[in-house]
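Each field is set out as follows.
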Amino acid sequence: MDSVRQNKVNSLLQKELAGIFLTEGRNFLPGGLITVSAVRVSPDLGIAKVFLSLFPVKDKQAVMDVIKTQSHRLRGQLGTRIGKQMRVVPELLFYVDDSLDRAEEIDKLLKGA
């Protein structure tokens, strides 16, 4: 269970990372859309797990590899945006959010049954 502080940091990071991916997204995924679906920060606020939804993508892992190689630069951009609110910018770990794909698959299975 997250504390109030963690929830505030989660929403701040999600909002700011969404803004970064809005401007930088075309570098990672030309012609596509990158959405920050969730952010989960550790209790010590040192590590942030960022869950991304990628549309329309054939090879999600290749796009995630590019994003992971650029995570240091993304963290720097995040630091310039939240430098006044947080003392330390958390380390960013990126994951693919495939919950929409799983929901679509379950829906398809239920309609077929």
About this structure: Residues 4-112 form a domain with the GMP Synthetase; Chain A, domain 3 fold (CATH 3.30.300.20). The chain has one domain: 4-112. The mean pLDDT is 90.
